[in-house]
Amino acid sequence: MKKLVIKDLHVEVEGQEILKGINLEVSEGEKVALLGPNGHGKSTLFNAIMGNPRYKITKGEIFLDGENVLEMDVPTRSKKGLFLCFQNPSEIPGVNSADFLKAAINEHSEKRVSLYQFYKILDQATKEVKIPFEMFNRSLNDGFSGGEKKRNEILQMLLLNPSIAMLDEIDSGLDVDAINIVSDCINKQFEEKHTGFLIISHYARLFELIKPTRSVVIVNGKVACEGGPEIYKRIDKEGYEWIKDEYGINIEKEEQPMNKVSIGVCATKEYVKNGTSK
Ligand SMILES: Nc1ncnc2c1ncn2[C@@H]1O[C@H](COP(=O)(O)OP(=O)(O)O)[C@@H](O)[C@H]1O
Ligand SMILES: [Mg+2]
After folding, report:
1. Whose Cα sits closest to atom 3 in ligand 1?
2. Could you give the C-alpha distances from 7 to 19, 70, 143, 194, 258, in angstroms and in order?
3. Residue 253 near ligand 1, beta carbon < 6 Å
4. Strand 31-35 with 196-200, pairing
5. What confidence category does residue 253 fall into, taking pLDDT thresholds of 50, 70 and 90?
6. Looking at the whole model, is its pTM more than 0.85?
7. What pLDDT was estimated at residue 62?
8. How many Å lie between the centroid of ligand 2 and the Cα of residue 133?
9. Taking the domains of the chain in order of start, what are their residue ranges?
10. 145, 167, 244, 267: least CB-packed within 10 angstroms?
11. Which candidate, 156, 163, 128, 127, places its Cα nearest to that of 140?
12. Which of the four CATH numbers 3.40.50.300, 3.40.640.10, 3.50.30.20, 2.40.30.10 does domain 3-274 have?
């Protein structure tokens, strides 16, 4: 059974420390709900695990089944069984969806799949995520609706069959039918393949459908608390204020310095520096 172990992880983005000592473990056969206020480092954690070069690991370790993940390049991390569903999947005009998926499958298998096999696999997966097969003749995510992009991410997960899948706000932008489709796919993957999941969401609705085995809350770049379903249920009802009261953790707000590294417009940078837009 594969296990992802994160030890005292510190991550910087553009010179700003975002993760400040994360400790977290997830094994195959576990579904972990990851919650936390916006801008507190949830997506940063996933990007760092997957090896996005913009996210600089300054301290700490990540192991997958005892192997040092930080020494692996991104394709190796993927082949070893890590998978990330992006919060905002990119549109890549000019890269045909079917070609992209076939290349990804071939990279993950010892023997190249024939065109016939590939179309059979893709046909089955498109039925599960309920996206028309014809859409895969188009460029990757090009002109896909928000919901189609998210379902396309889930389709990639089904095709690559990871040991540990990280889903970043997979339910944002999905209507009720699409949330049901996506959660059915996650549940099937879990039951049949025992994939371990780290699932970021702000909404109890998704968690009610997929029944996480644990809930973990990230605040100010650290794990603030862990527990069972009672945690996501409470956050859904009451927000995050109770964490401040019960754990004595001051929750930095998004507009505080923690967030300023994402600001790209000069006028706004001036505002941060001087407290005025003039
Ligand atoms: N690629 C990036 N470039 C600049 N800033 C970033 C980047 N990724 C994350 N950040 C910053 O790191 C902080 C944490 O962001 P993120 O991990 O996306 O939060 P969350 O997913 O919890 O909402 C934010 O202040 C955000 O602006
Ligand atoms: Mg995020």
Report:
1. 262
2. 12, 12, 40, 23, 22
3. no
4. parallel
5. confident
6. yes
7. 98
8. 30
9. 3-274
10. 267
11. 156
12. 3.40.50.300
